[in-house]
């Protein structure tokens, strides 16, 4: 590991946002990028364009919905897994995992869960349970592991501009937050909150009521580190300028930097 920038970015439609994605890759040059909500079939993935930009990729698409990918700068990710264990009937493209640049990276798109209560919220919690079960062994690995993606969870009220208007939303429900906390209780480190325990940091601004212009945001995109990766955490941030571009996703890329030397 040598000064790796690892990012997660819900692109909200790969073809529609490809110019935005390429502009971000050119400017920020992350070494690893986890993408969510590709919203396209495998055959429509722009592998050639990304290769021309210097990125190898693995991906799992799905027509009109979901979809995840891992990009690696000047490298080809070595796929380790696609899909979480525990439910063979689940056909959603929501998890992909690869070894790249000396790190094991899991890219996830956790179900939104709205409207709740109802079957979509039940599915969210069931998927979360499968993630918690699978993540336990990853957390205990001696190898650095990063679980990055759109978790569709606002962990605390500090992670949202105003919780009152979102009280019925699946992202803020006590059950959703409890599942996220159970992940942290395994020993995972919430990178941004670890480095900035008291700051309001947002990664998502919806398209309504000028929420971007008013900085009325939510923090739902997270990069969790296992204990083996934790000592290498140097920096973390949000490339908020991407959200201000034309035809932008409602998410901004969120990133960490792992250094070659351990923090004291």
From TrEMBL:
It is an enzyme of class 3 (hydrolase). Its EC number is 3.1.11.2. Keywords: Hydrolase. This is Exodeoxyribonuclease-3. It comes from Pseudomonas umsongensis.
């Amino acid at each position: 590991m040598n000064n790796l920038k690892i990012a997660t970015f819900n692109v909200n439609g790969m073809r529609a946002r490809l110019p935005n994605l390429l502009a971000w890759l050119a400017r920020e040059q992350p070494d690893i990028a986890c993408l969510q909500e590709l919203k396209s079939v495998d055959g429509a993935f722009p592998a050639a364009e990304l290769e021309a930009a210097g990125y190898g990729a693995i991906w799992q698409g799905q027509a009109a919905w979901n979809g995840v990918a891992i990009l690696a700068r000047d490298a080809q990710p070595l796929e380790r897994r696609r899909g979480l264990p525990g439910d063979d009937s689940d056909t959603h493209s929501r998890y992909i995992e690869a070894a790249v640049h000396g790190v094991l990276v899991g890219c996830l798109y956790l179900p939104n869960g709205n409207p709740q209560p109802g079957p979509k919220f039940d599915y969210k919690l069931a998927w979360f349970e499968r993630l918690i079960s699978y993540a336990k062994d990853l957390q205990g690995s001696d190898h650095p592991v990063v679980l990055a993606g759109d978790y569709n969870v606002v962990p605390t009220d500090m992670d949202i501009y105003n919780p009152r208007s979102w009280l019925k939303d699946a992202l803020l429900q006590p059950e959703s937050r409890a599942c996220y906390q159970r992940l942290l209780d395994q020993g995972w480190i919430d990178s941004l909150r670890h480095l900035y325990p008291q700051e309001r940091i947002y990664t998502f601004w919806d398209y309504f009521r000028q929420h971007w212009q008013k900085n009325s945001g939510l923090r739902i995109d997270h990069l969790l580190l296992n204990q083996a990766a934790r000592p290498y955490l140097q920096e973390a941030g949000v490339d908020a300028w991407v959200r201000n571009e034309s035809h932008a996703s409602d998410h901004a890329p969120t990133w960490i930097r792992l250094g070659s030397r351990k923090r004291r």
